[in-house]
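User: Structure please.
Assistant: Input sequence and predicted structure:
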Amino acid sequence: MPDNSAGAKPATAQWAELLRTLADPMRLRIIRLLEQAAQSGLRVGELAAALKLPQSTVSRHIKALADAGLTATQREGTSSLYRLSDAAARGSLKQLRALAGEFIKNDPQMQTDARRLARVLERRYDGPDGIFSALAPDWDNIRRRWFGETFQLEAMLAVLNPQWVVGDLGAGTGAMLPLLCPHVAKVIAIEPSVAMLKAARRRVADLKLENAELAQGSLEHLPIAEQTLDVALVLLVLHHVADMGVALAEMHRALKPGGLLLVVDLLPHKITMFREKMGHRRMGFDPADLMLQLAGSGFDGARWHTLPARAARSPEAGITVPDLFVLRAIRSPAVVSAPAAN
């Protein structure tokens, strides 16, 4: 469209320049190809292959079209994609394109270009120079920008059995509930803190999580009937427990035979700030020792691994955050009585 702002060239001069830009067969061919690839956009190399021209020649014509406001550029990984601009799809520019299209739609050269472009676009996915070869260096960042950091992990929750009853033991403010509730029959969230439980109830109400059941209680005194849970999640909670033996016996009691216990916690560390400011009773766990305790409490098949190390540091003291481990074990059929307090 003509620029009518102060200091701009007269509209007649602008139109004359635009028409001179379009009065070039090569640029009309490029515009036609960009129309054909309106959704995906095209790289200079792809245009050059479809037009059977050197990339330098195509780049020169693309610049002329861009200067006229007819094309736009988008960075995609290490490449630039060219499309028709928004301005080219409006008003008089759209009418000019439509008029040109009527004259050239049956042109043999245009039809040959279209066939070659179709083959070029196929090679985006096949061949060594395809789209994934170009995008590979930045692929993770591209997916992160479009879909977020955790979509894969959230999708993996769909592998949960929809008939399961899951216990979120030490649920805090209920952050896990929106992730779990869509995939299982019921989530029973247990939390000792009144303030945390209030926040969890508010989350459940706001998100209308109808299959979430919340109750106040601790790992040593679970308000859950015997053999209720298919899965017990204990995520960054065990380090708050005063009596480990009683807590393990309670989780064994609440799980069904063959039920799964999943623990995430800290490896051994010396960060006293966690004890002083976050209420930690234990300075992490040696997973091998914890596996022995689990075996003595009626759990079988325990295995564990460390989670990927993070470079995160605490905002207060700049202390490196300790590494985490995840441990899973299966509740054996035998009934285990609670040991003496330790």
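The longest strand covers residues 255-266.
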